[in-house]
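Now read this:
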Amino acid sequence: MIFVGDGALLRRAVAHAAAQGHPVDLVCSADPQDATGGARHLHLPAPADVNTHADALGRACTDGIVWSLNNRRIFRAPLLSRGLRILNIHNGLLPRHRGLPSVAVLFALLNGEHEYGATLHEVDAGIDTGRVLAVHRFPIAPDARHFQVMLRGVRACQTLFEETLPAVAAGEPLPPPPAPAGPPAYHGTRTLARLAAHRDHPAYARATDLGPFAAYAPELTAAIGTQAPAG
């Protein structure tokens, strides 16, 4: 199997898969240290186009499975036509939290949503639009702050990966997922244009408290900075 993404979530998934005896054929990320256990590494600085390496990924993958974790690279042709089963672990409940997790969490808090989580889905030509295979949900506490929901979301992603890895690797069907979590919505950088309208919202301070995630969400950090109250 091949892993595409970045950071601690990707690294933990690679290490877990290797520890469980699954073949880790290639790790595609910006940091060579993500390829633990002697796995081969393809340097792929974000947001480099992974699709230009379609032939290399097709040759390297021994079981036809590609995992995407904490990955902002978009899978498109010709990679999607290589016969690989590409699966993404998304920080958010699809289809309600499509797009950037940091922005999805922001508006989940501003909208007073009561649950968040992680989703395993197949990758198609859209963005977070592939068939949902499994979810891991958790409640949002009434006083939850942005960084707390993000952290629980990351942990839910890791849990979901570990729970579904055995069945995916064995080619076994997963239990039917629950009903979709609310109406579809996409949360990208353009969504941040609506942030100004929420500056007086009672949950604004909690929703924009990025904590340690500020360094990993530059678009959101910049948007919050432009909306800061004067004085």
The chain has one domain: 2-226. DSSP finds six helices and nine strands in the chain. Residues 146-170 form the longest helix (25 residues). The CA atoms of residues 112 and 207 lie 10 Å apart.
